[in-house]
Amino acid sequence: MIGKTKTPIVAIIGPTAVGKTAISLKVAPIIGAEVVSVDSRQVYRYMNIGTDKVSGAERLRVIHHLIDVADPDDTFTAARFVEEAGNAIKRIMARRKIPLLVGGTPFYYNALFGEMLTTSLASDVEVRMSLLKKAETMGKEYLYKKLELHDPELAIRIHPNDLTRIVRGLEVFYATGKPASWWYKHGKKIKSPYDVFYIGIIRPRMFAFGMIELRAKRQFDGGLIDEVRWLLKNGFDERFPSMQGLGYREVVKYLRGLYSIDEALAYYIKATKSFYRRQMTWFKKFKPVVWYDLNEINEDAAVLKIVENIKEHTGVK
Predict the structure, then answer these.
(1) Dist CA 119 CA 45 (whole Å)
(2) Which of 186, 203, 228 is the last residue of a domain?
(3) Distance (Å, rounded) from C-alpha 180 to C-alpha 312?
(4) 199 and 292 in contact (C-beta within 8 Å)?
(5) Tens digits of residue pLDDT in 212-262
(6) Contact call for residues 39 and 109 (beta carbons, < 8 A)
(7) CA angle 63, 273, 287 (to 5 degrees)
(8) In this structure, are 77 and 204 located in the same domain?
(9) Looking at residue 191, what is its pLDDT?
(10) Residue 250 contacts by C-beta under 8 Å, 6 or more apart in sequence?
(11) Which of 249, 244, 250, 275 minimizes the C-alpha distance to 262?
């Protein structure tokens, strides 16, 4: 087993729409693994179509963790992810199964496998709601400029359209009087207990873009609009970070009469392609990683090689 003082962990990473889930569903039964989802949107209940969750039948065949663990009006922080993922990993290993992390949220991976704060950063629901209301009336740009003023170090690392992280950064500042970047530097930390090995799944960009377009159209035709309509009817509206996710925010604007349905679909596709590019920028920094281009290697052959990678890293025979 590699790493005598750390727990060997394998993660399947890659940008959206390249086939990570399909690969994991083939790999997991072979090695006796359970999947720990590393997806910042699939944690939310009632949000199934727009987050492209694995089906109930697939979850009966391969156990998945950290899916449907929060309501849409909840704020699921990276600190909470670290805590719940750590607990899931311990439970999986206690049952002599292999934890297999799968997903495309780089921020969660960094939180889990980097140095971790021993305590969660402050949270204040009233401050958060106030900031989200300002985003509605004054725009994301206004809040981003506030973040640049109060926490320029954090602002550099956040995309100006990433409302969830902008609001979280400002929430920490207003709740504690100190910027989040200060807490990351000066808060008491512990080193990650994991020895991670990354398996990357990629496709040529234009192929992935085609898959993004097909998936978005399938979601629109397959009930995403009704899903969002139900969420709004039940009080889960655009005030909450969950509803700022790709697809949901565009459909909300369609239902509010701000976009036509064609505009909502076009903006969703455009935003997802931008997200793909940002994911690749982050994942290129991850190490150690072995990349598999599924347009260059047969999927079944890739599965066999990935199984070998996992066995070698974890010491499983």
Answers:
(1) 26
(2) 186
(3) 38
(4) yes
(5) 999 999 999 999 999 999 999 999 998 888 998 999 999 999 999 999 999
(6) no
(7) 60
(8) yes
(9) 79
(10) 259, 264, 265, 267, 268, 271
(11) 250
Asked if residue 162 and residue 284 are part of one domain, the reply reads no
The verdict on whether omega for the bond into residue 288 sits within 30 degrees of 0, i.e. cis, is yes
Pick from 109, 281, 303: which is nearest to 201 by CA? 303
pLDDT the model gives residue 241: 85
Q: How far apart are CA 100 and CA 127, in angstroms?
A: 36
Burial of 187 (0-12, 13-18, 19+ CB in 10 A): middle
Instruction: Give the Cα separation of 56 and 64 in Å (integer).
Output: 10
Rounded to whole angstroms, how far apart are CA atoms 279 and 107?
10
- Give the whole-angstrom CA distance, residue 292 versus residue 202: 6
Closest CA to 39 of 21, 22, 58, 61: 21
More confident residue, 200 or 173: 200
For residue 225 the two structure tokens come to: 């609009």
Distance between CA atoms of 193 and 183, rounded to whole angstroms?
21
Q: Map tokens 């990354």 to a residue.
A: 198
Residues 50 and 194 in one domain: yes
Do the beta carbons of residue 9 and residue 99 sit within 8 Å?
yes
> Which of these, 117, 123, 44, lies nearest to 82 by C-alpha position?
117
pLDDT bin (cut points 50, 70, 90) of residue 90 is very high
User: Please, what is the end-to-end C-alpha distance for the chain in angstroms?
Assistant: 11
Q: Which two tokens stand for residue 124?
A: 């204040």
Domain count, the chain: 2
Q: 252-266: per-residue pLDDT in tens?
A: 999 999 999 999 999
Token digits of residue 11: 């993660």
- Domain of 134? 125-186
